[in-house]
Amino acid sequence: MRSGRNYDLGKDGIWFLVLSLAVPTALGQAVNVLYAIVDRMYIGHISGYGDIALAGVGVAAPIAAFLSSFATLIGMGGAPIMAMREGHGDHDIAERVLTTGFYLLLFAAILLTPVFYIFRNPILLTFGASATTLPYASEYLGWYVIGTPFALLSTGLNSFVINQGMSKKGMISVLTGAIVNIILDPVFIFLFDMGVKGAAIATVISQIASTLISVAALRGRNTAIKLRFHGFMANQIMKIIKFGLSSFIILSTDSLLLVVLNAMLQKYGGPGFGDILITCSTIVQSYHILVTYPMGGMTAGCQGLVSYNYGAGLTDRVRLSIRNLQILITGYTIVMFLFTLVGSRLFASLFTSDAEILALSARYMIIFECMIIPLSFQYVNVDMMTALGQIHISLPLSLTRKLTFFLSSLLLPIAFGASSAFFAEPISDMLSCVIGTIILHTQLSGILDKRLKEGFHI
Predict the structure, then answer these.
(1) How far apart are CA 216 and CA 226, in angstroms?
(2) 37, CA 20 to 30 Å: which among 14, 112, 181, 234?
(3) pLDDT of residue 395
(4) For residue 3, which phi and psi values (nearest 5 degrees)?
(5) Averaged pLDDT for residues 390-397
(6) Quick one: average pLDDT of 442-456?
């Protein structure tokens, strides 16, 4: 398949393809981080109430991210199936899978929007908002939820763009939205004096822009697999959910676990200091997504490459793709680990000028990211097993890391105080790396040998 008339996933050199697909997608996801952190940077510097407003947005943000994770369920579930079908020569079915994914994204938005809008205040109060921070959290989440259809479409459709090998177009979609957000944030927050509400509205408008770019890419004249708006396949729904479930669990439980983390910080931090800890957590999480989104971009960019060659029976290319991707992503995490050691205080200063919050955030950031190099193996292990359709392997790997984080974030504050909750991340990163790497190296050869012996089944 010469995807987007750019790359031949079955013939071009593997290193060329890994770099061509992973790097633009990683850059696109790095830019995508700006959706989350630019809002927070501006909000943290609002005169008079910036730190409290930042804590409010910090409580709302994981809930907003949980909403957006449904786009991953559909996008990263349908896109590998689309690529496998194209690799196997089933072009018509590949296009119909894309169409099915599009309508599933719309349906998810219709279901989720009213529920989260109506019940946003009880949800926020349950998971970390205080009487002081609730007004800011509710205002931000309410406006964000209104834009849920575009949040899901912009993220979900981008997976179908990337899995055709059109990583540059995927990056352009994300970049366009980020630029719109960066421009509108100060205008709405400061010039129009809209505060937190302005930040949320700017985000929604930026998501609309990204959606339009993705639709245009999928409808383009030179696009290999086009969005047709007809050919919905009901029998593909469960397959899409099955393929996307592992990635969905990674992102949705990331969001839910941050909600739990905030709740524990609020509970064990006590009045006043609990809000300070959540402000610090918001800054730490902003840095964490700056690290992890590009990792997810690299693996997502190469999923189509692995899925296509698996569908085509080119198992040696599958092995080499996974190996080269791991080398690339490990190198990236080494660089980010070193930057964390020297640049954590500088990053925290982008969000606050309060000396106490600045010092605490820098310390917690180093703790939280100290195992990001092992985390790179977890990303490759899970996403490449998903690309091969081995959901029975990738899903338990995802759950292992989440369960470890959940238990650590619950138990550590009880035993050692609120701040110890920040150790939950490195503990879960290290354990999941060891387990996942052992499983990948013991199972991969058998999976690929079975593909050659028994043919392609999905």
Answers:
(1) 10
(2) 112
(3) 83
(4) -70, 130
(5) 86
(6) 83
Above 60 in pLDDT, residue 180? yes
Q: Token pair of 149, please?
A: 């259809």
Q: Of 293, 153, 308, 281, nearest to 215 (Cα)?
A: 153
Look up residue 8 and give its DSSP letter: E
Residue 26: φ, ψ to 5°: -65, -40
Torsion over CA: 149, 206, 33, 130 (sign): negative
On whether the CB atoms of residues 421 and 265 are closer than 8 A, the answer is yes
CB 144 within 8 A of CB 63: no
**Would you give the DSSP letter of residue 272?**
T
Q: What is the rounded CA–CA span in Å between residue 420 and residue 203?
A: 33
Tokens read off for 12:
């071009």
240 contacts 393 by C-beta, under 8 angstroms: no
Cβ distance 54 to 41 under 8 Å?
Answer: no
Please tell me the pTM assigned to this model. Answer: 0.76
335-379 tens-digit pLDDT: 999 999 999 999 999 998 889 999 999 999 999 999 999 999 999
Element (H, E) at 132: none
Q: What letter does residue 7 receive in the DSSP assignment?
A: E
Q: Which of 348, 401, 45 is CA-nearest to residue 195?
A: 45
Helix then strand then coil, % of the chain, to nearest 5:
85, 0, 15
Residue pair 254/408 in contact (Cβ under 8 Å)? The answer is no
